[in-house]
Amino acid sequence: MARIDEIAPDVFRISIYAPQQEMQYNQFLIRDEEPLLFTTGLNAFFPEMKEAVERLMKPTDLRWIGFSHFESDECGSLNKWLELAPQSEAITGIVSAFVNINDFALRPARILQNQEVFRTGKKQYRYISTPHVPHGWDAGLFFEETDHTLLTSDLFHHNGDVVPLTKESLADHCRETLIQFQQSPFANYIPYNAKTGQILKDLAELRPVTLAIMHGSSYYGDGKKAIEELDEVWKEVLKD
Ligand SMILES: [Fe+2]
Ligand SMILES: [Fe+2]
After folding, report:
1. How far is the CA of 70 from the centre of ligand 1 (A)?
2. What residues does 141 pair with on adjacent strands?
3. Structural domain total, the chain
4. How much is the pLDDT for 239?
5. Which of 11, 9, 13 is nearest to 27 (CA)?
6. What is the Å distance from ligand 2's center to 63 Cα?
7. Please, what are the averages of pLDDT over each run of 10 residues along the chain (240 residues)?
8. In the chain, at which end, N or C, are there fewer CB atoms within 10 A of the end residue's CB?
9. What pLDDT sits at residue 240?
10. Ligand 1 centroid to residue 1 C-alpha, Å
């Protein structure tokens, strides 16, 4: 059964641990007038995810489905959610909609421009286009501006069945996981290209207070410093 923890006001982390991979898959349900699910989790997780969402709200009331990039753990069960919740729509950037979602999904996505702001009730989000960060041409991130929560997708990935929320620096854990990946068939998981540093600097300037992390513990504290530390780790492990 998925574990649920409220990591920021009305931000619920729904965590499914995959023991074979020693890795958590964390999805975030943000309860509001128009509830938003950030990442659906793998298609295979749908029954477990539906049961978890049911503990928090009526799943048929889901309004928005967000994700960073086109990958199974980000949006694998998108069509199942679109089928279940009649008013739900994917919400994503232009590249994502044109290249993947508007062909793959049962109905077209709501398209956001880079830096576009939208409201779901009391919460306000900013969409930030982040090509190839963490990976994928279509990548983007959502920043919940009301409570300063950055939904980080694969940024800060660290393995293990870790605690839901921490104030401790994640840098060492992220370095360890990234090195493991680099030494495995999954090497080059994250490309560090000429624009990566600037994208991370811009994300740091958002000064998030909570980092809602897809694989690993979420973080609460100085989000700017945490992103700067992550950039150092990425440079150290990934840069040629
Ligand atoms: Fe990914
Ligand atoms: Fe992921």
Report:
1. 8
2. 128
3. 1
4. 86
5. 13
6. 22
7. 97 98 98 98 98 98 98 98 98 98 98 98 98 98 98 98 98 98 95 97 98 98 98 94
8. C
9. 74
10. 23
| Residues around the ion ligand 2 (C-beta < 5 A) | 73, 154, 214
CA of 28 to the centre of ligand 1 (A): 15
Q: Are strands 210-213 and 218-220 parallel, antiparallel or unpaired?
A: antiparallel
Question: Which tokens belong to 193?
Answer: 């290209």
Q: What is the CATH number of the domain that holds 164?
A: 3.60.15.10
Cα of 211 from ligand 2 centre, angstroms: 15
CA 94 to each of CA 78, 114, 118, 130, 223: distance values in angstroms, whole numbers, following the listed order = 17, 8, 15, 12, 27
Q: Is the peptide bond before 208 cis (omega within 30 degrees of 0)?
A: no
190 and 239 Cβ atoms separated by less than 8 Å: no
pLDDT digits (tens, 9 = 90+) for 132-146: 999 999 999 999 999
Host domain of residue 174: 3-238
Ligand found nearest the CA of 133: 1
pLDDT at 205: 98
